[in-house]
């Protein structure tokens, strides 16, 4: 087959830089097809890979791509910079084995701690909703829920949500700086103020958990710390714990609660869907029921992730020339896999821009072109965890509340803006009202027992 020259879309202008990659990628692929080189500067092109075949190629040929990305760092590379690699040092090999064994030993307990944290976070979210018709900003509501749903299982019950929220924002700031600044600016990343703020947060949070817990406490740090010999210095102990703790946070924390936010934004505009989700929970406690018993809630969450994927664009560098379709992408090129495009493509989805809560009741129909978390075994584990988190929260909220966007919510605010993730452009005020039906499925006693 004759190889074709990859079309180029010139986005090296102030106008295209201002409208952002979401619109640039949509425009470029609409004009030139699924594979197109976007010229973002005089020296750099991004190769958009905008069809499912590109994902399947990546899944089958991961050795053809690397995650150490020259002047655009991948999430994996940035994570390694932030957490350090002390645990990989040969002199700590025995402790690496001990901590890995301890992680395996407490895996089932940790799952239970996470489930408890998720239930408590969801109860707290509902308990703290205004009862007088006052609007609440979904950004704050979902961010705090996401922290409470994970961090007590990692750091212990005594967490400062506002402090962790700021710390997570600092971590996101480091990721954003590393992925947008050029190689010269990020060459010595440890001197970057964004790195110092992010590393400082992690070290402070881990140190506080170490100082405030004992080996019998039900949290990750307390338990992993028991595997490190007592004669290891405090500084080394911190360096050895940080990679394990950081990777768990990366896997379990839905940053900013954004996936829940986008689902609730859509539900707030569809009272019938909210009512239908409530109906499938009647007579059951939504905090305890199986996800398989709430298929519409699960489908709604998956639909939210279709329109607003956790990773709208995924960056990789080719380690050799790769052939995708009729094109050869050269070695050393930055390839951008694009769930944002595939999951809104009318070739694969009926009415792709419409939020349709029941779309995923036939799940297998969509597997070949649905990549909200990326691809890979670890991604699959994270995806299953996130789907459960979001499904439990969505069905519990729908069971206990009616809600709608506030009339004061600017429509432009609920158009996504790409940073390190998809964020709203401003406040998203929503008015919640508790249901008064005697058939209320939420356990009122459990809500009353939520921590104050």
From TrEMBL:
- Keyword Cell inner membrane in annotation: no
Q: Which InterPro entries match?
A: Cyt_P450, Cyt_P450_E_grp-I, Cyt_P450_sf, Cytochrome_P450_Monoox
Q: Name one Pfam family in it.
A: p450
Q: Note the superkingdom of the native organism.
A: Bacteria
Question: Which keywords, in A-to-Z order, does the entry hold?
Answer: Heme, Iron, Metal-binding, Monooxygenase, Oxidoreductase
Q: Which family does it belong to?
A: Belongs to the cytochrome P450 family.
Protein name from the UniProt record = Cytochrome P450
Q: What is the lineage of its organism?
A: Bacteria, Pseudomonadati, Pseudomonadota, Alphaproteobacteria, Rhodobacterales
């Amino acid at each position: 087959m004759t190889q074709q020259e990859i079309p180029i879309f010139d986005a090296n202008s102030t106008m295209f830089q201002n409208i952002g990659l979401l619109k640039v990628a949509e425009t470029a692929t609409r004009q030139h097809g699924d594979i197109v080189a976007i010229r973002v500067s005089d020296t750099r092109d991004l190769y958009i890979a905008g069809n499912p075949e590109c994902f399947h190629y990546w899944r089958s040929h991961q050795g053809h791509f690397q995650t150490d990305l020259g002047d655009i760092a991948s999430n994996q590379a940035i994570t390694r910079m932030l957490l350090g690699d002390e645990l990989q040092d040969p002199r700590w090999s025995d402790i690496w084995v001990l901590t890995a064994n301890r992680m395996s030993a407490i895996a089932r307990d940790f799952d239970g701690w996470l489930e408890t944290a998720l239930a408590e976070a969801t109860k707290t979210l509902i308990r703290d909703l205004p009862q007088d018709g006052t609007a609440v900003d979904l950004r704050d509501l979902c961010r705090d829920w996401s922290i409470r749903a994970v961090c007590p299982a990692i750091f212990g019950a005594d967490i400062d949500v506002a402090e962790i929220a700021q710390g997570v924002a600092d971590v996101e700031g480091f990721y954003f700086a590393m992925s947008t600044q050029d190689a010269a600016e990020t060459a010595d990343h440890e001197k970057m103020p964004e790195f110092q703020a992010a590393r400082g947060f992690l070290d402070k949070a881990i140190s506080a958990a170490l100082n405030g817990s004992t080996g019998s406490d039900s949290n990750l740090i307390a338990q992993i710390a028991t595997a490190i010999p007592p004669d290891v210095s405090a500084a080394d102990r911190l360096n050895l714990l940080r990679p394990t703790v950081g990777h768990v946070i990366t896997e379990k924390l839905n940053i900013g609660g954004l996936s829940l936010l986008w689902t609730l934004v859509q539900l707030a505009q569809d009272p019938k869907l909210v009512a239908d989700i409530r109906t499938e929970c009647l007579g059951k406690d939504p905090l305890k029921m199986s996800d398989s018993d709430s298929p519409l809630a699960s489908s709604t969450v998956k639909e939210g992730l279709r329109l607003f994927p956790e990773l709208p664009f995924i960056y990789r560098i080719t380690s050799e020339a790769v052939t995708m379709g009729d094109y050869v992408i050269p070695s050393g090129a930055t390839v951008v896999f694009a769930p944002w495009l595939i999951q809104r493509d009318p070739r694969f989805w009926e009415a792709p821009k419409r939020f349709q809560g029941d779309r995923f009741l036939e799940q297998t129909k969509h597997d070949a072109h649905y990549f909200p978390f990326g691809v890979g075994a670890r991604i699959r584990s994270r995806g299953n965890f996130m789907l459960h988190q979001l499904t439990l929260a969505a069905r519990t909220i729908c069971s206990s509340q009616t809600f709608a966007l506030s009339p004061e919510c600017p429509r432009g605010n609920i158009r996504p803006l790409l940073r390190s993730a998809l964020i709203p452009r401003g406040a998203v005020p929503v008015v919640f009202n508790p249901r008064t039906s005697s058939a209320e499925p939420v356990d009122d006693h459990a809500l009353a027992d939520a921590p104050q």
